[in-house]
Every structure is written in C-alpha cells, then in structure tokens.
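Renewal narrative, Specific Aim 1. Our central claim is that a sequence can be written position by position from structural information alone. The example that follows is taken directly from our test logs and has not been curated for this report. It begins with the structure tokens describing the chain, in the order in which they were read.
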C-alpha cells in the first residue's frame, strides 16, 4: 500500500515538473506598449546680432566705382545726448565726444586696412594723417565738414570717394546697455540700444550716396567706447562694398 502511494506521489511530482518546464519554454507574449510622445518646443531668443543693422547699396555701385582707386575717411563725428539724471555740463560732453572721436578715427582706418589685406581689390585708403593735414591746412572745422559737399572734399583731398562716420550716443541708454551685458552673454537676448552709428560713402564726382551702413550700438558691441568702436569698425569693414563682388 505504501509502495503504491509512493509511486502515485512520484507520478504527480513528475507531471508537475514537466508542466512547469513547458510553460517556461513558451515564448512570452509580445507586449505592445506605446511610448508616449513628448514634443519639446525649442525656445529661441533673438540675438543682438539680429536685426540691428541696415545696409543700403546703390543699385549701380559697381558701375559708378569702376574707376575708383582711392577713398578718404573723414574725421569721425560723435554726438553725446545728455542723460537727464547725470546733468553733465554740455562743455564736458562736447570735450568727451571730441576725445572719443579722435581716438575712434585711427581704429576705423586700421580696421579697413586690415580687411583690405585679405582682398584683391584695387582700392586704397588715404592715410588719415594726410587727410587731417590737408583739412588743417585749409582751415576745415567739424562744422564746415558737415556743410561742404563730397565733390568739393574729394577734389581737395585728391580722392574718388568720401567716407563719413557719425555716432550718436544716448548716455541714459549707455548705462542700461552695460548692465544688460551679463544677461546677454548667458541668454543672448537683445540689449537696449545705446545709440546709432552711420557710415556713408559718397561719390566724389556727383555727391551720390553709394553705400550706407547703419548699426545700433547695443551691449553686444562692448562696455566702453574703445571696444564699441573696435567691434563696430570690424563689422563695418567686413561688409564694405569695395571688398565684395556685387
């Protein structure tokens, strides 16, 4: 009797084992788990390099400048708009503008000369020391330069075209632009304008405006006037029309 029970028990264990092995060897059912889709919208911020400059080029620039060989850069004009809070005397602002313009003049000349080195165009810039000497000998003041025609100046200087540069600064916005610089570097946001710089090229034969480069002075151009002029001049030089096939 005990033998029969033992055999029966062994038989039950054997059947249970084979059943478990069979279930283990079966391929697990494929689960179709749908992954959720996440749409991350990339946030973009307007860079200070975007939309802060305007460039005008005469439709016949190439035709009008074919015979140009030398151009002269007139002394830079800087105008500082007074900050209502600062209340600096007008005389101090005028003197500061005079000093800044004097320091900016060779920077712009050097930037154009440097950029010219990388191009093979038959255009030269009259040395600013020569330009200044001729203007001084003819008793030209900054006020007289504003009212004298480009053709007369070109004839006097012996060049084919005249380059002028005018910078208008807003003292109130200059301080705001400086405080914005750190945020600009981390987020590349647009800083407040601290003024406007305008560079013009006039034909020495007919006074026509051949080219104009206008740029807002933002925090991206630097925290001091020297750095601002250096960056502005470099960017203007890279867009200079005499260096670009039109």
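The sequence written for that structure reads:
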């Amino acid at each position: 009797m005990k033998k029969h029970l033992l055999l029966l028990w062994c038989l039950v264990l054997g059947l249970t084992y084979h059943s478990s092995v069979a279930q283990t060897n079966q391929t697990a059912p494929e689960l179709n788990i749908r992954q959720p889709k996440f749409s991350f919208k990339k946030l973009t911020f307007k860079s200070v390099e975007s939309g802060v400059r305007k460039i005008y080029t005469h439709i016949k620039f190439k035709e009008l400048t074919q015979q140009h060989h030398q151009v002269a850069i007139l002394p830079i004009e800087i105008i500082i708009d007074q900050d209502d809070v600062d209340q600096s005397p007008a005389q101090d602002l005028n003197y500061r503008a005079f000093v800044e313009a004097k320091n900016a003049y060779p920077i712009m000349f050097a930037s154009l000369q440097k950029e010219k080195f990388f191009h093979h165009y038959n255009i030269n810039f009259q040395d600013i020391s020569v330009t200044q000497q001729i203007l001084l000998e003819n008793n030209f003041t900054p006020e007289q330069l504003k009212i004298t025609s480009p053709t007369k100046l070109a004839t006097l200087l012996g060049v084919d075209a005249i380059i002028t540069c005018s910078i208008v600064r807003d003292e109130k916005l200059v301080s705001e632009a400086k405080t914005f610089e750190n945020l600009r570097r981390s987020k590349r946001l647009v800083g407040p304008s601290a003024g406007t710089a305008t560079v013009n090229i006039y034909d020495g034969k007919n006074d026509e405006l051949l080219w104009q480069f206008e740029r807002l002075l933002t925090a991206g151009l630097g925290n001091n006037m020297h750095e601002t002029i250096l960056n502005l001049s470099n960017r203007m030089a890279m867009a200079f029309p005499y260096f670009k096939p039109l």
